[in-house]
Amino acid sequence: MKKLLPTSTAGSLPKPSWLAQPEVLWSPWKLQGDELLQGKQDALRLSLLDQLQAGIDIVSDGEQTRQHFVTTFIEHLSGVDFNQRKTVRIRNRYDASVPVVVDAVARQKPVFVEDARFLRQQTTQPIKWALPGPMTMIDTLFDDHYKSREQLAWEFAKILNQEALELEAAGVDIIQFDEPAFNVFFDEVNDWGIAALERATQGLKCETAVHICYGYGIKANTDWKQTLGSEWRQYEQVFPKLQQSGIDIVSLECQNSRVPMELIELIRGKKVMVGAIDVATHRIETPEEVASTLRKALKYVDADKLYPCTNCGMAPLPKAVATGKLQALTAGAAIVREELSR
Ligand SMILES: [Zn+2]
Fold first, then answer.
1. How far, in Å, from the CA of 69 to the mean position of ligand 1?
2. 141 vs 70: CA distance, rounded Å
3. Measured between alpha carbons, how far is 331 from 338 in angstroms, rounded to an integer?
4. pLDDT tens across 162-203, in order?
5. How many A from CA of 251 to the centre of ligand 1?
6. What domains, with CATH codes, occur in the chain?
7. Residues 111 and 73 sit within 8 Å (Cβ to Cβ)
8. pTM, 2 dp
9. 272: closest CA among 235, 231, 237, 230?
10. Environment class of residue 65 by beta-carbon count within 10 Å: exposed (0-12), middle (13-18) or buried (19+)?
């Protein structure tokens, strides 16, 4: 029988200090050339081991081979000039210096396929691989070529689809698209964002997921959260259309967030990765706190569709904190699994 409440993480986990400076985003690599390649593989194996030892069921690469969940993918594409930089407002929240789209975008070679194949060789557990979503990608660039957010997103969707099909062939069980932009640009999400996402999943037979969160626990995000009021109802804007989509799994932020849990009812029928670990605090949840969040979610998600998860990636956290949170997630899920078996 399939295990109930299989645990997983949203994606990124801390990197070893010999590979990149811990607790920061866009941390530069400390190694170069062949040493860097070897170091990334070693880090991937350590990250996998941490997950397995903590009892995580659906494992990932911990995003050890990428500097950032969006930019690293874009760096592998042609048509984007990384020497030209323009300052744009990311998700209407903070300014960042971003590369410029100067020509038609294309994927000349696979981006993460070798890494996924390597992860597949290391474990027989189900593996999940994260890619940026098309809308989140366009929001991290200055477009001087297409001059249409929709058209650029569509081009990225086609590129992501090429990558996803090869990841599936490499043995990935769940392909996840990270779309924090879905929490910001509601009209665009409904007009073409979800259609672009579905284009990225075209022809896939493995499971597909979309991760929609309120971002890493960095200051720009926590400041933004302060402005959102006592109830965060952003999900309400996009869930009805997402429920109608072909995406199998929706990954959400639920722990310590002000998202009313009943909004999950709007995606009834989908599998839900319920964020039961807050990534914006160093405080490690108790197993009972995790269990309490999962019990609340069970009112709106059938038990066989509930996947305990983290709110977002844990790359910016100290390693000991991240490991403690993985253990808390496993222990909390075990409590509820035991209750369900009675
Ligand atoms: Zn996230």
1. 10
2. 10
3. 11
4. 999 999 999 999 999 999 999 999 999 999 999 999 999 999
5. 9
6. 33-341 (3.20.20.210)
7. yes
8. 0.96
9. 235
10. buried
